[in-house]
Every structure is written in structure tokens, then in C-alpha cells.
Specification:
binds flavin-adenine dinucleotide; alpha/beta; five-stranded parallel beta sheet; Rossmann fold; seven-stranded antiparallel beta sheet; globular; 261 residues; Elongation Factor Tu (Ef-tu), domain 3
Amino acid sequence: MTNTQQDTNRWAFPIPPRIASIAGVKPLELETTEAIDLGPRMRRIRLRGAGLEDFVYQPGQDVMLVLSEGERPLCRRYTIRGFDQRSHTLELNIVAHGVHGPGASWAAETGPGDRVNGVGPRGKIFLDPTADWHLFLGDESAAPGYLHMLEALAGGVPGQAYLEVSSPEDELPSSADGVTWLYRGDVPAISSTMLADTVDSLELPDGRGHVYIAGEVQIVNAVLRACIARGLEPAQLSPKAYWGRGKSNELNGEPGDRAVV
Ligand SMILES: Cc1cc2nc3c(=O)[nH]c(=O)nc-3n(C[C@H](O)[C@H](O)[C@H](O)COP(=O)(O)OP(=O)(O)OC[C@H]3O[C@@H](n4cnc5c(N)ncnc54)[C@H](O)[C@@H]3O)c2cc1C
């Protein structure tokens, strides 16, 4: 093996049977085709490879990448930002959060030709087909998936996303209408109350809607409480904790704590 091949294989860890056998997923043996900065704190990674030729998923679902060796490897999950049906190319947008972590390190270091393995699609949260309207509330880690869901809404069904980022430089491109970017400035993500404040002051549309909430676990819980205080029922709420303050996600890519309705 040449040095170059060794280098492109440095993230290509085997998918152990316990991960390959997760219900509904298929193995993905991928290669990075593009890795660029979308802004100061976001990487766009495009991937192609085995498992994507006939990939079927719903906007809101994610892929889980295997980022270490062994029967219980370190995995990280990333919501699908887009999938090009013609070239079978998957797009992920990954926050460069500035703290050492295997997911952020992979996103920072991977380049065209690098291999990475994983499984997908994962995740049980996607658009509620019965909803009269959709409301998305999340931080930058939730923005890629929520933009994809908003873009996938059937014409005429209203959707609104409130996405909290540090500054206007962090806005992500999207063809969707209905996106409001909230800027927390120098306030740390874990101290911001902007999403919960938005729920407190928002005029909710008529009809029965569905609310999707994702980001840091304690913020997700605060936003959930705000939604319940507005009279929304648990069945209308889809919370998902993506990361936890001050600690690494667990091997399976989840923060230890859950968002609870
Ligand atoms: C279903 C699901 C979908 C997800 N989709 C996406 C996605 O589309 N894009 C995306 O970027 N992430 C997404 N995440 C989060 C992602 O899986 C990782 O948690 C994240 O990339 C951090 O992993 P890491 O290995 O870099 O850091 P970790 O080892 O988990 O954490 C290291 C340190 O970084 C801190 N940290 C982690 N994330 C952030 C953050 N966003 N801001 C500030 N500090 C942070 C932690 O508190 C910890 O102190 C998703 C998570 C889940 C469960």
C-alpha cells in the first residue's frame, strides 16, 4: 500500500455487525468528494460510494459514521442536508464547534478521496404528513436537517424555521422560504434563550401544527417547556438532543441525556 492509500484509509473503519444490524439501515462505504467551509463555523462534506446507488430516506433522517475501530466504535450522526439523485451524492453540513471531538475533527481533516464507513438512513423524526403547519426550532447543528425538511414541504403547507447561529456569516444557503436566522452574537450557545423566547412571542398559525426542536439537550428541553406553556400537546412535538454541553456524545453519537416532552 502506498502512503497515499494509507492516508485516504485513515478514517475507513469496519462497520461492526451490531451497527450494520440496526433496523432499517444499510451499510455505507463512502468516499469524500468535497469538503469545504460554508462559513467560519460550518463544513460542507459531500460523499459518494457503495450503499448510495439506491439510497432511500426521508428528509429529517441522518447517517451514522463509524469513526474508530472495534466492536463498539465511536460513532457520530449527521442529518442529511441533501441527496443528489442523479450522482448519488450525499451532503452533510457539520459544525466546526471549536472543541476537539471525533466528528468535528473528521469534518475538518477529510478531503477528496478519503474513505469513511457508516450506516443509514437512521432517525424517526420526519415531516408529519397530517400537520396543518410546521415549525422548526434549532441551533446550527439542526439547521442542515431543518432546511432540508423545509425545502421538502409540499406546496401550500406553511413552514417556518427559526435557526440560531452566532452571526450572519453562519447562515446556510437554502431555496426554502420561511427561514428566520437568529444571531446569538458572543453569548455561548448553552446560555442563549433566543429559541425559547421566540416560542414565547410567536403567533402560532391556525390549525394543528407540528414543532421540531433540536440542538443542545438543555436548550431543547427549555424550548419544549416553552411549547407546552403555549398549549401545544406532546404529540405535536418532536424534540431531539443532538449534543450535550461540556461533554462528548456517547459512542452511539447521542448525548447521554435525552430531550423529554
Ligand atoms: C440524530 C442526530 C443528528 C445530528 N445532525 C447533525 C448535523 O447535521 N450537523 C452537525 O454538525 N451535528 C449534528 N449532530 C451532532 C453530531 O452528531 C455531533 O454530536 C457533533 O458533531 C459533535 O461531535 P464531536 O465528535 O465533534 O464532539 P463530541 O466529542 O461529541 O464533543 C466534544 C465537545 O464539543 C462540544 N460540542 C459538541 N457539539 C457542539 C456544538 N454544536 N456547539 C458547541 N459545542 C459543541 C461538546 O459539548 C463537548 O464539550 C447530530 C446529532 C444527532 C444525534
